[in-house]
Amino acid sequence: MCEANAYLLKGDKEEKVFENVDRLQLHEGGLLLEDIFGRRLIINARIKELALVDHKIILEEIDSE
Amino acid sequence: MCEANAYLLKGDKEEKVFENVDRLQLHEGGLLLEDIFGRRLIINARIKELALVDHKIILEEIDSE
């Protein structure tokens, strides 16, 4: 399976926020992530980087300005 | 391997623009894609959707306004 884990950048650290992500869509200015079991996470962030062979999705928070 | 293919939305059609994508990064308002062989594509687009189990990255063009 080619799911990935989602990490949110906090300063220079990566904090894992969701595992086994299959689908990701834009959602009301942020993102909707869905894992391989159909569980969902809505997060006020955008994609900064993908590293698919490493199974990583790196997210960064959106400033609510 | 868990690379994916990148498709650019053209109306309601998906046109494959790059295969075997491993890494993707934000780059000067658009995206820098790198495949598993180290080849790179810079594209004026953003991620609309991921479907990792289906090995798909769906991109949409950025209006140059």
TrEMBL record, chains A, B:
Q: Name one Pfam family in it.
A: CooT
Taxonomic superkingdom? Bacteria
Q: What is this protein called?
A: RNA-binding protein
Biological source species: Syntrophaceticus schinkii
